[in-house]
Design brief:
Two copies of one chain form a homodimer. With 340 residues, chain A is an all-alpha fold. Chain A is 75% helix and 1% strand. Chain A is globular, with a radius of gyration of 20 Å.
């Protein structure tokens, strides 16, 4: 069965509003999360709130804390602990971003100057450490060893995933299986943990914990797959977004893996020289995209994302109908179909 | 009162054996700590145990875990939890070292190539994150929220101290008070936490917790003061150790602060150009040392270390006599008088 994926038309389906609807649904909780974040990034060492404020304000979608908030509410939780724990999740994510930008030597994130480009790598490493520690202090104040277990384990797995990514970087022989391990660890595990603790604070049975974990994990995988597609997406480019960062760094994402494996020996020589030796010149990115299109690599990566999205969808099957459930299900479409 | 400090002769007093005696006293426990460390730095991502093994094997004195072990035993603790928590302390310390070497762009630590110089800054940042997460996983397995509170708070303060040090680096106007804040946070706080949890596992009254915290904090301050002296110590140089790392980086330690404040305007111009602008040439380090000697800056830094050592000594006054108490008291002399 041939599947034609047109990112441009999907973007017009208005999927982004699924995220807006989720945000709207838990907006009161989200205000509290932001308050906890602002309050707990304070320090007498002024560079810390300055730098942390920069990345927290750049903020992005707050997708991970939103998942914690909506999961808890879907589980009929009525307390306030989830806002504090959602802030912990965001702190871990922010610490990871700070360290990532140092590791990747990035100058831009979401079109803004990265913290490391403004304050130096040193400050980014140390403020990342601070936010990470703060996150654990907040969890300790919450007092649940189970939550501490979930988030400390997730943090260890994230670091493992990042190291794994480092060891596979610039290696065109990387397999889809290895790539999947990397994105499960570095991205999807925190999505899983964010959702999981929603069930934990609500004191729900194991089956619901498992369901939310599975939802988060599979959503996270599809989220990262689409992220990797967007980095080569012509649709992105027409929207004025930067593309080609992964290509320039020689990052081996699934679109590359598929194009390489499906390519001729001549094409493989192209991939190796551009991504392993990083000897790149003008027009290379466009050629890379044309090879991906020729072999359906972007289309099939989106297809893989749909597969994990479908698993995420079915994971929530055991929960009764609710506004939160609908919003969480719609977020899957948002993740798979977003092209903004 | 004029106090003459002769590092050379003190080295011959055999103070190092105080650390050997402490190590000997808790040697069975220390074997277990090392086992926990080896076991928990494992990961299917091979670079992690490789890199962690490098820094853990370089190992050094294991001073911080030794403090946890001896503190717990002095408090008559008879269980095994302290070995696991001592490993947590060492993991936090190791993670800090990995990130420090990236921040300082160091090539050598204790005469060995640093992890970042062998595997790159990226791997050092990420493996540091991994060890830090592992440390929290171990604490969660131990199950004491109080210990988690102590060590997560210490970690946040360490990061704050490191950032503070970054913002004062290369600033010759840094005050002794600020410098003291930095070393309390970045070094002494973990010493304090390491000792504190010894009392916590033994379930001792608050006064004993406080006493051990105070012992650790003041020991840590004197330890760092002496570390900063050793970087300018001629005695070190005759032993074939590298000196002058702090000078080359423009680090503002107490010997510099004292020499700068006591110096003539001409001398201050020297300090500013060498440490702020880092315009250094051969013979500058020797000149810096001669200025420190002229103004008694090294001698008086040792004197300050003695002061904090004395407070550490008195902190343990409330504990009855024991082999462990004697060993902990002797370690103060080791820290103040070491010149190896």
């Amino acid at each position: 069965m041939a599947i034609i994926v047109n990112l441009e038309s999907q973007r017009e389906k208005g999927s982004p509003s699924a995220l807006d609807r989720l945000t709207e649904l838990v907006s009161d909780d989200l205000v509290q999360v932001n308050e906890v974040i602002i309050q707990h990034m304070q320090s007498p060492v002024v560079l810390i709130p300055q730098l942390a404020g920069h990345i927290v304000a750049a903020g992005g979608k707050r997708l991970r804390p939103l998942l914690t908030l909506a999961s808890a509410r879907m589980c009929k939780y009525e307390g306030r602990r989830h806002t504090c724990l959602a802030a912990c999740v965001e702190f871990i994510h922010t610490a990871t971003l700070l360290h990532d930008d140092v590791v990747d030597d990035s100058g831009l994130r979401r079109g803004l100057a990265t913290a490391n480009s403004l304050w130096g790598n040193q400050a980014s490493v140390l403020v990342g450490d601070f936010l990470f520690s703060r996150s654990f202090q907040l969890m300790v104040a919450d007092g649940s060893l189970k939550v501490l277990d979930i988030l400390s384990s997730a943090s260890a797995v994230i670091a493992e995933g990042e190291v794994m990514q480092l060891t596979t970087s610039n290696d065109t022989e990387t397999s889809e299986t290895t790539y999947l391990e990397v994105i499960k660890s570095k991205t999807a595990k925190l999505f899983a943990a964010a959702c999981h603790i929603g069930a934990v604070v609500a004191d729900r049975p194991q089956a619901e914990e498992d369901a939310l974990q599975s939802y988060g994990l599979n959503l996270g995988i599809s989220f990262q797959l689409i992220d990797d597609v967007l980095d080569y997406s012509a649709a992105q480019k027409t929207l004025g977004k930067t593309i080609g960062d992964d290509f320039r760094e020689g990052k081996i994402s699934l679109p590359v893996i598929l194009a390489y494996r499906r390519g001729s020996e001549e094409e493989r020589i192209f991939w190796r020289s551009r991504l392993e030796d990083l000897s790149q010149k003008e027009g290379d990115l466009e050629h890379a995209i044309s090879l991906m299109e020729k072999h359906g690599a972007l289309r099939d990566t989106v297809e893989r994302a749909r597969h994990y999205g479908a698993i995420a969808y079915d994971s929530l099957g055991i929960f009764p109908q609710s506004k939160e459930k609908t919003a969480l299900l719609d977020v899957i479409d948002f993740c798979v179909n977003r092209a903004f």
